[in-house]
Design goal:
It is built from twelve helices and 18 strands. By secondary structure, the protein is an alpha/beta fold. The strands form four sheets. It has a seven-stranded mixed beta sheet, sandwiched between helices. The longest helix has 20 residues. It binds flavin-adenine dinucleotide. The site of flavin-adenine dinucleotide has 34 residues, from helix 1, strand 2, strand 3, helix 9 and helix 10. GO terms for molecular function: monooxygenase activity. Keywords: Monooxygenase, Oxidoreductase. Pfam families: FAD_binding_3.
Length: 407
């Protein structure tokens, strides 16, 4: 149950309670909804999917974000949901074993503190916290947004028209809210030199609580058994110097591109490519970061991947989403108007975002070397890690000191 403070801010147009529409019900949307309710806002969340999306790949909650979920009271249940992988095994291009390491050694996480959970488990925990206090509109989305002096007039795809004091886009990397406010994504999506395909396939390998990763220069294939399940998360990642053309946005073209790139690959890759061809949950995308000079315009702001996706290559997307949602709600709870609040949000979070986005550069992801030379260097580093003590946690993961929540 959420304890509701009284809003201390004069955001509300006509009614006494300021209203906020959040677009997107994954991680940053429900997290923001929780903290805004704590601050006394009336919150509506619109999600284009017909229901909360479950399942999905594993995500990490680290450093500052662990403190956010602790303050939300869901740390114990997330510890229960922790995937607790036992090892990461790296394979040479002929399929022989290069090195077997503990997951935290590879990710720079802190064993016993940082969490790895299925994305759907985190989304479900966040949703359960707010569903009785927040209006959810599933199967709908924003069609038009018009800002006036008094508020934001919203027309939904489903035909409804409503006015809110504020709107926040929590609608992910390819945010439509961002497009409404600032124009096409290309201006802000910084391509990192990789494309990837993820899908599930049967666990015919007997893998349990472990990751296997095969590499050749510019190519990587991974199988991840997040439990002892019958299914594996399969992942095919490859280097492409320029982002693929728009024609590659159809699923058939994506499948052909991936199959072509991995045509001569060893290990279990041929079976993975075959599974990808038949997968009904294939997700193909480019690895990129959203970098924007500002995260708001007027009464509309962005949070999470919509504003500052760091890419899966950093493993920090969910952590930035949780920490960003907390900071945005706290800024709205403490500042006299939305202009001051959005400025404080940016000022409070920008450095943290920049540090995390700097964890990876174009074509330089440690786990995905793009040349034979870089692969040899990476392999030497992995072999050394087998005998070295675990590295210290990455400073970027905990670089944001959270203020006490104002409400
Ligand atoms: C393959 C992959 C692996 C990843 N691995 C990791 C990892 O290991 N660690 C990590 O921390 N992060 C990882 N991430 C990133 C992580 O999933 C995101 O950073 C995080 O989920 C961001 O949360 P978000 O709520 O801001 O956006 P999203 O999770 O993208 O959610 C956006 C929501 O908005 C909805 N939506 C979209 N458009 C509209 C619209 N027009 N109207 C209404 N709703 C809309 C979507 O349906 C979705 O529910 C990975 C991402 C991918 C793709």
């Amino acid at each position: 149950m959420i304890s509701i403070g009284s809003p201390t801010t004069p955001f509300a147009g006509t009614s006494g309670t300021p209203s906020v529409l959040i677009s997107g019900a994954s991680i940053s949307g429900p997290a923001l909804a929780y903290w805004l309710r704590r601050a006394g806002f009336a919150v509506t969340v619109v999600e284009k999917a017909g229901a909360l999306r479950d399942g999905g790949y594993p995500i990490d909650i680290r450093g500052t974000a662990t403190e956010v979920v602790r303050r939300m009271g869901i740390l114990p249940e997330l510890r229960e949901a922790h995937i607790d992988s036992r090892r990461c095994t790296f394979l040479n291009s002929d399929g022989s074993t290069l090195a077997s390491l503990s997951p935290s050694t590879v990710s720079g996480g802190v064993e016993g503190q940082d969490l790895e959970v299925r994305r759907g488990d985190l989304a479900a925990s966040l949703y359960a916290l707010v569903r009785d206090e927040v209006e959810f509109l599933f199967g709908d989305s924003i069609d038009t947004l018009d800002q006036t002096q008094e508020g934001v007039e919203v027309t939904f795809r489903g035909g409804r028209q409503r006015t809110f004091d504020l709107v926040v886009g929590a609608d992910g990397m390819h945010s439509r809210t961002r497009e409404f406010l600032f124009g096409p994504e290309e201006q802000f999506n910084r391509y990192l030199g990789y494309c990837f395909a993820i899908f599930t396939m049967p666990n015919t390998f007997g893998l349990s609580h472990e990751l296997m990763m095969w590499n050749a220069p510019g190519k990587a294939a991974a199988l991840y058994a997040v439990g002892g399940d019958d299914e594996l998360h399969a992942f095919l990642n490859f280097h492409l110097p320029e982002p693929p053309a728009d024609t590659l946005r159809t699923p058939a073209a994506q499948r052909n591109l991936v199959a072509g790139v991995f045509a001569d690959a060893g290990w279990e890759v041929p079976g993975m490519v075959e599974a990808m061809r038949g997968a009904d949950d294939l997700f193909f995308d480019t690895a990129g970061q959203i970098r924007m000079p500002h995260w708001s315009s007027g009464r509309v702001a962005l949070v999470g991947d919509a504003a500052y996706a760091p890419s899966f290559l950093t493993g920090q997307g969910s952590s930035l989403a949780l920490a960003g949602a907390y900071m945005l709600a706290n800024a709205l709870a403490t500042h006299p108007d939305h202009t001051a609040a959005f400025a404080a949000y940016e000022q409070g979070v920008r450095k943290f975002v920049t540090m995390n986005q700097a964890l990876v550069d174009n074509g330089s992801a440690t786990l995905f070397p793009t040349t034979a030379r870089a692969l040899v260097q990476r392999n030497t580093m992995l072999r050394d890690l087998v005998t070295l003590p675990a590295a210290a946690a990455r400073p970027a993961h905990s670089a944001l000191a959270l203020p006490d929540f104002a409400a």
